[in-house]
Amino acid sequence: MKPATGHRQRAAAIDLRMRQLAEEGVPHSAIIERMTVYVSDLGVIWNATSDAQLAALGREYPGFHRYATLMEEAAETERQKPTRAYDDLPELADPLREQLSSLLSTAASLERDYQSVIDVAGTSASTDWRLPLSGLHAQWEADLIRFKMAIQDASVPQKSRDMIFLILERMAQLISKLEASLQAS
Questions:
Q1: Helix, strand, or coil here: 108?
Q2: What three-state secondary structure class fits 180?
Q3: What is the pTM of this model?
Q4: Are 183 and 114 in contact (CB under 8 A)?
Q5: Helix residue ranges per DSSP H, the chain
Q6: Backbone conformation region of residue 174, classed left if phi is above 0, alpha if psi is from -120 to 50, else beta
Q7: Which 8-state DSSP code applies to residue 49?
Q8: Contact yes or no for 37/79 (Cβ under 8 A)
Q9: For residue range 18-65, what is the model confidence (pLDDT) as tens digits?
Q10: How far is CA 137 from CA 13, 106, 114, 128, 160, in A?
Q11: Is 52 helix (H, G, I), strand (E, B) or coil?
């Protein structure tokens, strides 16, 4: 049984980005941070495919396989630590968890879409990308502000907020950097 088209698209996007990072010479140790926006896509694939489908995706998209392996190794290393910075933190309430999941998913879409436009910018890119991507980016930023206010109002521990905000800030910087590079071209 073949993986669903959506899973193949996600795996292809991960594969492409991993190849681009390799071409840029990004060290292995920096890949996880540079690929943060793809964690939710990897999770969707991981949780919705059979072992056989996952193996097929890995064969078809070697960059996807490398990323999945890297994340699995990182998770195992993390599990083996006697203590972790987040061990004593409470889980987010469902509404906040859903908002965060949506932010991560939209950030991944933005990063993928901006990167796709950058990939063709030297050949046949038009300015048709500006309105939809700029609109989605503005919506994501507004959702991010609402999430930050909601998490403050929910009395989530500062340590939790700091960890979440650090990840979201890195994503925001990456997305803004990608948009700026397209604006300059």
A1: helix
A2: helix
A3: 0.72
A4: no
A5: 5-24, 28-34, 39-48, 51-60, 62-80, 94-121, 130-153, 158-184
A6: alpha
A7: S
A8: no
A9: 998 999 899 988 898 888 878 888 998 999 999 999 999 999 999 999
A10: 19, 9, 10, 15, 25
A11: helix
Taking each helix axis from N to C end, the angle separating 62-80 and 39-48, rounded to the nearest 10 degrees, works out to 90
Give me 43's structure tokens.
């999770």
Which amino acid would we find at residue 162?
D
Distance CA 137, CA 175 (A): 8
Q: Which residue type, as a one-letter code, is found at position 94?
A: D
The pair of structure tokens assigned to 61 is: 């998209």
155: region left, alpha or beta (phi > 0 left; psi from -120 to 50 alpha)? left
The length of the chain, given as a count of residues: 185
